[in-house]
Amino acid sequence: MTTTATAARDIARADRTAARRHRDAEVAAWDDLMASLDGTDWQQRTVCTEWDVADIVGHLCGQAEDVNKPWSFPLRDRRARRVYPTTPLLDAHMMIQADDHRGTPYDVLQQRFDKLWAKATKTISRNPALIRRMQVTIEGMPGFDKLDLGYIQDILLARDLWMHRDDVCQALGREFDAGPYADELVAQVMRDIVDGPFWSGTPVVLTLTGQGGGTYRLGQGDPIATVSTDAVGYMRTLSGRDDQPTVVLIDGDPTGAEAVATCRMPF
């Protein structure tokens, strides 16, 4: 049976209704995950090497705070430059987010997450078009230097919640449930790969297997190869979490598999 490949360039951007579904599903999944953690779980180190599980939750609380109180973003940037002067600004900003919540009792941290994200997801859904079109300059995120606020809040925040939930499952040795909208989240990543400067241009057919899987055509022109890899694993690879992906060349030129394995994109 032949599987039709979706041209990544033709994937529609998730609309506000879909983005709300993605956020709500991820916040609910985080509630379930945090409720299952004991004291030692919160202290486990993660692939985000500076952070343990509690730090990731603190960072995500900071993300919601930056939505609810937009003035906190430039204030954190100012502190980030001072506290972490040699770290790229975006990374330093996220470290400040985690710093701001470090040491919070775990039950309080969970309650804080719930409260902040309940407000944030409503704020995002209610933002008027004028606000959503505001251009945000992001230092330390090559290829995403200027982004619409609506894109950041609709697409990137849901992706961050999803990917960090996998980080925690990886740290705890638990199976990751990618959720009911994994295929939609992954499809948005595929669109972003070819919509920015991240893809080499090599035309390939990429079949992503497992949760969130699908078959995509990357690059323009006749594909030189058909390649396969795990969908969630490839999201880790793209975001720089795993530099040794298992990429299978099904047929064609091996440079197609190399292009897939070496592609990276800020998450």
TrEMBL record:
Domain Mycothiol-dependent maleylpyruvate isomerase metal-binding: 25-168
SUPFAM superfamilies: DinB/YfiT-like putative metalloenzymes (SSF109854)
InterPro entries: DinB/YfiT-like, Maleyloyr_isom, MDMPI_metal-binding
Annotated protein name in UniProt: Mycothiol-dependent maleylpyruvate isomerase metal-binding domain-containing protein
Species per Swiss-Prot/TrEMBL record: Kribbella ginsengisoli
